[in-house]
Amino acid sequence: FAFGIAMNAPNYVLHPSLMYGMWSGWDSKPVSTKPKFYADATELGIEVMGKLSEEAVAVSKALQETCPSLNVVPIIGIYDWLLSAYDNKIADKTNLYTAVRSNEAYAQIYHPLKSVEGGRFVPDFFF
Questions:
Q1: Shortest CA distance to 10 belongs to which of 65, 66, 60?
Q2: Cα-Cα end-to-end distance for the chain
Q3: Rg of the Cα trace of the chain?
Q4: Per residue of the chain (127 residues), what is the pLDDT tens digit?
Q5: How far apart are CA 8 and CA 4, in angstroms?
Q6: Residues forming beta bridges with residue 121, ordered by sequence position
Q7: Are 37 and 11 in contact (CB under 8 A)?
Q8: Which among 39, 56, 70, 93 is least buried, having the fewest CB atoms inside 10 angstroms?
Q9: Cβ atoms 44, 84 nearer than 8 A
């Protein structure tokens, strides 16, 4: 069943939470530097990420228990997924916040931005 496969692809947890954490309090003024998508992740973004992950795991477990005929593939939480996918690339595995921010594989990925006048940037929410 595709549900488990889709739920184990963590982009639906990673991307919206990090965008929300970085830009939810944005004052609509252009920024002078390009924030890194993962290395500059905010505590709010990581908190949202953890909660989204917990909800996805709970939905998966509930479906397994209530609809066994669906053969739902169990999913793992985002922290465990990061460790299994990037174990040797994560410098600090203390918690989800440090694991996301210290993942060498993500170190050079930036938020989607548009260049504006004066060499400044605004988020590209439609990337």
A1: 60
A2: 30
A3: 17
A4: 455 556 667 888 999 999 999 999 999 999 999 999 999 999 999 999 999 999 989 988 998 899 888 777 788 999 999 999 999 999 999 999 999 999 999 999 999 999 999 999 999 999 8
A5: 6
A6: 31, 115
A7: no
A8: 70
A9: no
Amino acid at 31: V
Report the alpha-carbon distance of residue 118 to residue 127 in Å, rounded: 22
Alpha-carbon span 111 to 25, nearest angstrom: 15
Torsion over CA: 109, 23, 49, 71 (sign): negative
Rounded Cα gap, residues 85 and 105, in angstroms: 10
DSSP 39: T
**Residues composing the chain:** 127
User: CA 75, CA 3: separation in Å to the nearest integer?
Assistant: 10
How many CA atoms within 13 Å lie on the side-chain side of 122?
9
β-bridge partners, 113:
123
How many other C-beta atoms can be found within 10 angstroms of the C-beta atom of residue 123? 18
Predicted TM-score (pTM) of this structure: 0.89
Residue with tokens 């709010």: 44
Q: Amino acid identity of 86?
A: Y
